[in-house]
Amino acid sequence: MVDTVTALGIKGAAVHGDVVAHLRKKAEGDVAAALSKARAEGVAARSEILEGDLAHAIVEYADKIDAGLIVTGSRGLSTLKRAFLGSVSMGIATLSKRPVLIVK
Description:
Number of helices: 4
């Protein structure tokens, strides 16, 4: 079973409800497309959209469903950008007690 998760990572600032609604609608479309592709290839898949701090939300969800592995992508930020912006994949790897596979 593959779980496709899109987390809306809005933290540290007040965000207008319309912006959150727009992001949620976009996430729903993106997740539906990914789910459709997975199922078309014969992959048993389900989806969930999470809100909050990305790394924490993904790790908490993985714990909730007792995931055997967390697979996440790496955007390949430079060292300087990563120092200022942080790295979601690195945060997941640091926070999780489960195996994490970071794909570049």
